[in-house]
Structure formats: C-alpha cells, structure tokens
Write a structure and sequence with these properties.
This protein is mainly beta. Among the domains are: 189 residues, no CATH class; 79 residues, no CATH class; 79 residues, Immunoglobulin-like (Sandwich). It is built from two helices and 53 strands.
Length: 617
C-alpha cells in the first residue's frame, strides 16, 4: 500500500520538476531571442578557427567569432566593429549570397585604420542602407563576386581588396539566378552607390541587376579615387560570367559580368557623378529614362573618359575633353557647363544638342558645328581648338560654329587669335553664331516692361575695339519713373536716362543686353468732409497700375446722406463709397483730394397715426 502511494508521489514530483525545467528553458530561449538585434554596437573577429563556431557575446573582449552572429545581434542602424584578427562569412551553400538585411555601419574597431572581411558566400546582397568603411575585402568564392545595393543605399568608403584577392563588382540592382529566381530580399526602388576614398578598388559598376532587370532610379557617385579605380560604369544590368568554378584555388580573375542593355534594363533614370576619379567609361545604354553624367574634376585636362549612350552631360567643375561622346539612337544631348569650367568637344565635328546651358568655356574643333535645337542660355566663352591663355585658336572666317534658334537668349564671348584680331563671333538674325570679319558685336537695349517705359534704340552693332556706341535713352511711361540701367547679371551700370556702355578692363566693348528698369509712381488720396463733420480720415497710399478700394466714409452731415466722392468741392460724383479705384493720378508723390458729396435728407416724414395735410399735421 505504501509502495503504491510512494510511486504516485514520485510520479508527481518528476512531472513537477520536468515542468519547471521546461519553463525555465523556454524563458531562457525567449530571453535570448528577445535580446537578438538589440545591441547598438557589436564586435566580431574570427578568433576560433572553426567556421561554424558561434562563440562570443559581441563585446570587444569576447567578440562574435562569426560575422553572421554579429549581424543577427546588432540593432537596425547599429555598428559592427571588426577587430584586428579580421571577420569571416561562411558559405551558405547552394550558390546563395550572404544577406545584410539591416541598416548597419561596418568598420574597423577603434585604433585600427583597416580591417579585413573574408566572405565565402556567393556575393553579398543588402536589404537596407549599409555602409562599409576602411574594409579590406577577400571574396574567396568566385561565383557572384559582387556587392549588390539591391535598390538601397550602399556606401563604400576606402574599401579595397587584399593583394591578389579577386576584384569585386558593385551592382545597384539585385541578383537573380539563371532561371530568373530572385536571390535575397526584395529590391528597393531608389538605388544609391557612393564609392569614396583613395584606397577604393573595385571591378565594374552596374546600374541594373545581374541576370535580371531593375525597376527604379539609380544614383552612382564615385569620389576621390586613385588610378587603380579605373573601371567601367554601365547604365544597365548584366549576365553573370561563365568560367570554371571548380578551380577554386586559381588566382586568375573570373570574367566580369557581360553588360546587356537589351535584356537587363533599368526601369528608371540613372545619374552618374564622377568626382576626381579615374573611371574610364560610362555607357548609359539600358536606362529607360536616360543616363546623365556629372563631371567634377580638377583644373588639369581629363581626356581619357568615354561617355557612351548618355542623354545629358554637366561639367560642374574642371576641364573635360571626352574621348567619346554618343547618345542613345543618335538623339540630341543636353549639355551644361558651370562657371570656371571647360568642356572641350574638339574631338567631334558635329554635335547635335537639345538644350545648352552655358557658363564657363566651350571649345569646338576648327571645322565643327554645334546644332542647338532647344534652349540656349547663359554666357559662355567660345574658343576654337588650338588656343591658349584665354585666346582662341585660328577660326575659319564666316564659318557657322553654333546653330541656334533666333529667340534663344544665350550669348557667347570670343577672344580671337592674335593673328585674327579682325574676327568676331556674332549672332545672326537667324540665330546662328558665325566667326565674321571686323569683329562686329551687337549691343542690345530693352525695358523691363514695355508697359512701364521704352528705349530710344533697341540694338546697335559696333567694332568692339574702335567702335563708339551711341547708347540708348530710356523714356518713362505714364505713371512710371525711371530707376536705373542693369546688365545681364543684374548689376547696376547707369542711373541716367541716357546710358552709354563702357569698355571692359581689357579695352574692348562686349556684346551685352542692357535693361532699363522702371518703378510705378506712388501717390496718396486725402478725404475732406466738404460740409460734413467728424474726425479727419487718414490719407490712403496708392501705387500706379494697382487697383485698390477706397476707405469707408466716416464723415457725417446732419439731415444729409453721403452720396460719394468728387474731385472738387462742387464737382460731380466720381466714386461711390468704398469703390475700387485705379490710376487716380499718374504723378509721383501727388496727393489727390476727394470731397464728400451729400444729398439732403427727405422732408416727408411718416409717423404712425398722423397724416400731414397742406403742410400741417
């Protein structure tokens, strides 16, 4: 009997103990899971040789042995520090890339200038905005030797490769298998690649995806890289390279993916900015909304850059002489040159341009023609190739160098070669700019508003060195007064009605458009009671050309009704109470007086219960 009872108790005790163990284990696992991804800062280093050793707690003293654990435990927006031993990413197998699905910064631990990161995975794909700084990559796996921005922001600051390690390509889009299966998280739709630093070294840069298309816009910015960063930028995706993948230990570089703008398109616009870098070529083919290149270099001539299949080029800074310049399907290109920058197109005989936004200097070949079909704006210094120190090379007399519409506002300045001081660069009535003898220039005069005033002459053509400009006289329109003359930059150049241009500091007149500026006259309106009574009404300010309501009448007159305002005490009514008025006078600073007009009240009162008969109640 006692044995049976003890057996029952023993069973209950066992169940209770086992239950407590399961609860504690569950709480421990739950606690561990809850702590994952909560650390703002973690450290990693492959201290233990086993590639599957999950040791470490992420502290600097006890770093995660595997990079995967560091990523799993760092918080979104946190930092992963790599210690001097370097970090390691194991191979997930089956040609799967390693995925970084958090917005993280990856950089050397404090006190280190560089840290190594070795990856055996088939590429690295990001699913959030990621920054690598001062990292030395070692991609052991030949397959997909690329870093994929995957439609997000990827910043690579002084990121290089270990000596003799394979080059890594950078891809703005995502990764797909040969069968079109997406590898990694869903791509974003606004990819940004920013490569910066003298130590940076990569393979090619692709705006699209590998083995697939990318849908979204792409910004590629390469800044301050040395000559070893002499790679190509493509505005499309590419097909993965085919090579002997079984030869794992071969030191030979695997072929780069083959760009294919027809098969692997970018469904958006691609913007490429090259800033003090040695990128050799940009091929914008494959971007459905076009590819634009911004060049920001140094004062030294850059003449090794090929620009293919782009629809826009902006020289933001520096001296650029493109080795090649083409557009998709022979379309017209948009060109822009910032002040103090040079665009040298002397390698090309015919340049078909859509819009040209001038500034800085444009250099064309001796027999070249630049045909601008759209807008031509800004002020640009023009030279024929072969010039120096701001002086043009030898031009062909009467040659049309720039074709444009007659209504375009842009202008070109020109300093002829010393052997051709008789030549000038003059816009014709049809809009074409021609190198013509006698160096005649056209000076134009205009008004800021034809309703406000006019000018005596609108243009005159003179010799820039020996000519004597007549100038133009501004005439004030009714209700307006002359202010000043300004040049195209808005600088005041004269305060008299008659303006005569002056020579520049180099002793010549320059083609310019001068504008006569006018302002509306201001006047006041005063109000008189004209027999009425009450506090004086305040004067009212008016501007010629602007309609404004009169103040409400505040005067009173016993047994009289206010009827309106007159310009004379005994004059007719011209304005009702609170009427909207305009241009009461055209004279500046005049005070116009309005007189109240009164109507005598009726002498026919009506009272309840009374009737007036024969003027008696």
């Amino acid at each position: 009997m006692k044995t049976k009872k003890w057996g029952k108790y023993r069973t209950k005790i066992f169940i209770a103990v086992f239950t407590i163990f399961l609860v504690s284990l569950f709480m421990e696992v739950s606690s561990s899971a809850a702590e994952k991804g909560t650390k703002a800062v973690v450290y990693t280093a492959m201290i233990n040789s086993s590639v599957s050793d999950h040791s470490g707690d992420g502290s600097k003293e006890n770093p995660y042995n595997m990079f995967e654990d560091a990523l799993a435990n760092v918080s979104d927006g946190g930092t992963i520090y790599i210690l001097s031993q370097g970090a390691f990413i194991n191979d997930p197998k089956n040609d799967i890339p390693f995925v970084i699905d958090k917005a993280v910064h990856i950089e050397p631990a404090e006190g280190l200038t560089c840290a190594s990161l070795e990856s055996r995975a088939a590429g690295i794909v990001i699913g959030a905005d990621v920054t690598f700084s001062n990292i030395e990559f070692i991609f052991s796996n030949k397959y997909h030797a690329q870093i994929f921005a995957n439609g997000h922001s990827l910043t690579l600051n002084n990121v290089t490769r270990r000596q003799n390690a394979r080059l890594v390509d950078v891809v703005a889009g995502g990764l797909y298998s040969l069968y079109g299966v997406q590898q990694g998280p869903n791509p974003g739709n606004s990819a940004r690649i920013f490569i910066q630093g003298e130590e940076s070294e990569f393979g090619n840069i692709y705006a699209g995806s590998i083995n697939g298309s990318y849908y979204g816009d792409v910004d590629i910015h390469v800044q301050n890289t040395k000559q070893k960063m002499s790679v190509n930028v493509y505005g499309c995706g590419a097909k993965e390279a085919e090579f002997d993948r079984d030869d794992f230990f071969s030191g030979e570089e695997p072929p780069s993916p083959s760009a294919d703008p027809a098969a692997y398109t970018v469904g958006g616009r691609v913007n490429v900015k090259l800033e003090k870098t040695f990128i050799m070529s940009v091929d914008g083919a494959g971007a459905s909304e076009g590819t634009e290149v911004t060049f920001n270099g140094t004062e030294y001539l850059a003449d090794n850059l090929s620009l293919l299949n782009i629809d826009g080029l902006y020289v933001e800074r520096g001296n650029l002489k493109p080795k090649a310049l083409t557009t998709p399907n022979g379309e017209r290109i948009n060109l822009a040159i910032a002040a103090d920058s040079i665009l040298n197109l002397s390698n090309f005989s015919d340049i078909a341009v859509n819009n040209f936004n001038g500034g800085g200097k444009l250099i064309l070949g001796r027999e070249a023609v630049m045909d601008v079909s759209g807008e031509l704006t800004g002020k640009t210094a023009f030279e024929v190739s072969g010039g120096y120190s701001g002086v043009s090379g030898v031009a062909i007399e009467n040659h049309v160098y720039v074709k444009s519409r007659p209504d375009t506002e842009g202008i070109f300045t020109f300093t002829p070669n010393y052997s051709q001081e008789y030549l000038g660069f003059v816009k014709q009535a049809n809009g074409n700019w021609i190198a013509v003898r006698n160096n005649m220039i056209t000076i134009e005069y205009q008004t800021d508003d034809i309703e406000k005033g006019g000018v005596s002459i609108e243009r005159e053509t003179i010799d820039p060195k020996d000519g004597i400009p007549e100038g133009s006289i501004a005439s004030e329109g009714e209700g307006y007064r002359f202010q000043n003359w300004t040049d195209e930059s808005g600088i005041i150049v004269g305060n008299d009605l008659h303006f005569i241009p002056q020579k520049t500091i180099s002793g010549v007149y320059e083609p310019m458009i001068y504008t006569a500026n006018f302002a509306a006259n201001a006047y006041k309106i005063a109000f008189k009671a004209n027999g009425g009574s009450g506090a004086d009404m305040e004067e009212q300010d008016f501007v010629y050309g602007t309609e404004q309501k009169l103040s409400r009448n505040t005067y009173t007159f016993q047994n009289h009704t206010f009827a309106g305002w007159a310009l004379k005490p005994d004059g007719p009514i011209v304005y009702k109470d609170e009427a909207s008025v305009k241009n009461v006078t055209s004279k500046d600073a005049e005070i116009v007086i309005l007189y109240a007009k009164w109507t005598k009240a009726s002498n026919d009162p009506v009272r309840t219960g009374w009737q007036m008969v024969e003027n008696k109640w």
